[in-house]
Design goal:
This protein has about 325 residues and is of the alpha+beta class. It folds into four domains: about 15-160, Conserved hypothetical protein from pyrococcus furiosus pfu- 392566-001, ParB domain (Alpha-Beta Complex); about 175-225; about 260-290, no CATH class; about 295-335. Helix content is about 50%, strand content about 10%. Helix 1 packs across helix 2, helix 4 (about 115-125) packs across helix 6 and helix 8 (about 195-200) crosses helix 9 (about 205-215). Mean pLDDT is about 75; it is low at about 1-15 and about 230-250.
Length: about 325
């Protein structure tokens, strides 16, 4: 699929009654960037000619002078030999003009076909990938479920959030917003509900719920979200589902370990990062974990009279870690 330059939002589109009206030469107008896949319907042009009614102004994109809405009216005016037509100007970029063309053509005149509306939905989602399914659906006259199905089949979409009809940004997966709120609260417990809500893209009431869950030592996600994020085949439907991080799996005795990678995995574990006791464990590991051996150059730089002292200190630390490992393994065997 070809890449499309995207924008997160569209500026407020002025309504027809707020637009500037002018009488301009017919020859100054260019064909529309129409959402109609089959182009102009000559039968509809004939109906307009036979009606003899005073037709409304044509909506025109001021910057390009392309017709946004009113190609049938423009052709009718040409067949009638008119040299000038009334227009209303639209100010905005090309993508916003296309959205306006779609919304105008589903609200009056010759209705867009189902194929026209589906094609328009795909184009709008490529232009505005942050728009929610409901917002796109409202623009093209489809259901949000139809738009969602089109997004899955046709749009290369990796956006974690959507902009709704009310202009608010919300995460696609509610668990993502809850996890982000949990991270913020863990780092800044004094942050207000509204401050966290704005940063995480969720409601203040949801932040309050996340805070209460963290105080109880629970995951910030709901039971339903935990179940949805559970690793397949792990646990039972009746048990509390928890995603197992890579760092939580057992390691073989002969396996070469990367301490920093393991520590990063532990930092992502909800049972550690979202509880006071778990964060205390992580802080302790940050302080005392030795990730790499002492470089040979530094060993050679140790003064001779300090060698026995540092060696004894290293053995003391090794013994302390060995004791910690023994206690952890014992606790693991008792808990399993």
């Amino acid at each position: 699929m070809s890449s499309v330059q995207t924008k997160p939002v569209v500026a407020a589109v002025p309504q027809l009654g707020d637009l500037e009206t002018a009488l301009i030469p017919v020859d100054s107008l260019h064909p529309a960037d129409s959402p109609r896949l089959d182009g102009v319907d000559q039968a509809h042009v004939a109906i307009l000619l036979e009606s003899g009614a005073e037709l409304p102004p044509i909506l025109v994109h001021r910057r390009s002078m392309r017709v946004i809405d009113g190609m049938h009216r423009l052709l009718a005016a040409r067949y009638q030999g008119k040299t000038h037509v009334p227009v209303e100007y639209f100010d905005g970029d090309d993508d916003a003009a296309f959205v306006r063309a779609v919304t105008e053509n589903i609200s009056h005149g010759l209705a867009l076909s189902l194929a026209d509306r589906k094609a328009a939905a795909v184009r709008i989602m490529n232009c505005y990938p942050l728009w929610s399914d409901r917002r796109v659906a409202r623009a093209v006259g489809l259901s949000d479920k139809t738009v969602g199905a089109l997004r899955q089949r046709t749009v290369d979409d990796a956006q974690p959030r959507r902009i709704g009809q009310d202009g608010r940004v919300r995460p696609i997966d509610g668990a993502t917003g809850r996890q982000l709120a949990g991270d913020i609260l863990a780092a800044r417990p004094e942050a207000s509900l509204r401050e966290v809500a704005r940063a995480a893209g969720i409601a203040p009431a949801t932040v309050r719920d996340v805070r209460e869950r963290l105080r109880r030592g629970d995951s910030p996600m709901t039971a339903t979200q935990l179940e949805a994020h559970r690793v397949p085949g792990e646990g039972s439907p009746g048990s509390r589902p928890v995603r197992r991080s890579r760092s939580a799996r057992p390691y073989r005795d002969d396996e070469v370990l990367d301490p920093q990678s393991i520590l990063e995995g532990l930092r992502r574990d909800p049972s550690l990062r979202y509880t006071d006791s778990g964060r205390a464990v992580l802080r302790w590991l940050d302080r005392y974990l030795v990730g790499e051996p002492l470089p040979a150059g530094l060993v050679a730089a140790v003064p001779p009279h300090c060698l026995p002292v540092i060696a004894r200190l290293a053995r003391h630390c090794a013994a302390a870690w060995a004791d910690i490992a023994q206690r952890l393994e014992h606790h693991s065997s008792v808990s399993s």
